[in-house]
Amino acid sequence: MDIGKKIKNLRTEKNVKQEELAEYLGVSFQAVSKWETGASVPDIALLPDLAVFFGVTIDELFQMSYEAEFERMENMFWHERRIPAETFGHCVRFLERAVQSDPKNVRAYSCLAELYNHRAGSDHELAGEYAKKVLELDPEEKRGWVAYLEANNGVCGDEWYDNHFEVIEYFKEFLIKNPGNYRGLYAVIENMLDDERYDEAVPYIEQMRTAANTHQYDTYMGDVMFGKGNTEKALEYWNIAVEHYPQRWQAYCDRADRLKKLGRYEEALADYEKCFVIQEPPRISDGLYSKAQVYELLGDYNAAIRERQRIIQCLKEEYQTFSGEAIDEQKREIGRLKKRKAAS
């Protein structure tokens, strides 16, 4: 832990002289110089003031390896509900230095995207709470209504606002440069279907057939049929997707999502359960999340609580995750469900 090197890096970033830092801390500039050369270390009582001066946490004053910085950050995306401003700033500075030294550093760019998305998500969560307060105080206040929908990615009924035109155009261009790319096809198809651009989506769905050996061709063709009003043909495609790929858990999950929209809840619950149990550990809990939502929709709060508890069990046993936001989110949901049960 080379705290002297860390202090020097932070001071250089802020373009601060040793004398300025020394004056703020009430020490001599020679003392600062000794820290930075490793001749001595700052008194522990100075650490809080050092952290405040540089806008970092005390932990961040202790130098971490390049790899450790990345690992800590990536763990933070999973475990933290909200990232403190000083920690966010530290991460941005570290990642910007990383891409400056290596403009092709994919990991650094990915972390920057995740970092800003994480903050956007937590900011939207707060915005949603404030917007609900507006609507509690004044149910007719349009600004609160708009703010809540925006914070929760809701549909406001305005085609200009709700469509995915820019996303679709980006991935159409992306696929010209990267023909047959699975993730590009996945993105353009999903967004076209959501915007009800069914005929335009079909050529991309045909490409999906050769891009990946999955159930998605039949699933998406079923979506096109459903969008055009042919529910019987849609069900035929969705069933074929599962029949052709009986060991693929995503096929059951996708069919369950569509059965739920049709109000066929018992069938959907069975598919969601199947998509969870056939996986090899560590399992993804998508099916359990969806089961909890369906049970809540049906008013079976005990069952919804049970599924949330199963998610916690999975996190603990299969991911060795015993604390953090992943666990806390489920505990909050269980608490909310217990209140709903008591009020029903």
Mean model confidence by pLDDT:
93
User: Share of helix among residues?
Assistant: over 70%
Structural class: mainly alpha
Tertiary shape? elongated
pLDDT < 50 runs, ≥5 residues: none
By DSSP (H or I, 4+ residues per run), the number of helices equals 19
For the sheet with most strands, the description reads:
none
Explain how this protein is built.
The chain is mainly α and 344 residues long. The protein is built from 19 helices and no strands. Helix 7 (106-137) packs antiparallel against helix 8 and helix 12 packs antiparallel against helix 13.
Give a concise summary:
The chain is mostly helical and 344 residues long.
Topology:
Blueprint (H helix, E strand, L loop, with lengths): L2 H11 L4 H8 L3 H9 L9 H8 L11 H14 L5 H17 L4 H32 L4 H10 L7 H4 L2 H13 L4 H13 L3 H14 L4 H12 L3 H14 L4 H13 L3 H13 L8 H12 L3 H19 L5 H19 L1
Helix pairs in contact: 1-3, 2-3, 5-7, 6-7, 7-8, 10-11, 11-12, 12-13, 13-14, 14-15, 15-16, 16-17, 17-18, 18-19
Key words describing this protein structure:
344 residues, mainly alpha, 19 helices, 74% helix
